[in-house]
């Protein structure tokens, strides 16, 4: 049986890895939604979800995060448009 300190270190390492994976998934989803909005904006959450083949709750949460970051703006009733900052952010991600 390992000591309690070792178990805590192992758990901490596993938690950090899980957070890294979730962060990467969030970045991929953010990029995908920004791409969709650049091409098709304005769109409603349900339309974005259909295009991205993602669950509407995932899209809604991602849109809320992107709005908090200033990358998209709500136009009302679940309708979103990409901001100039969102376009710049997407260009930086793509390296263009």
How would you sum up this structure, described in words?
The chain is mostly helical. It has a single domain, classed as Arc Repressor Mutant, subunit A (Orthogonal Bundle), CATH 1.10.10.10. Helices cover 72% and strands 11% of the residues. Strands 1-3-2 form a three-stranded antiparallel β-sheet. α1 packs across α3 and α2 crosses α3. The longest helix has 37 residues.
Biggest sheet statistics:
3 strands, antiparallel
Helix/strand order, N-terminal first: HEHHEEH
Radius of gyration (Å): 17 Å
- Give me the count of strands: 3
The helix content, as a percent range, equals over 70%
The number of helical runs is: 4
- First and last CA, distance: 53 Å
Which features does this protein show?
96 residues, 3-stranded antiparallel sheet, Arc Repressor Mutant, subunit A, mainly alpha, single chain, 72% helix, elongated
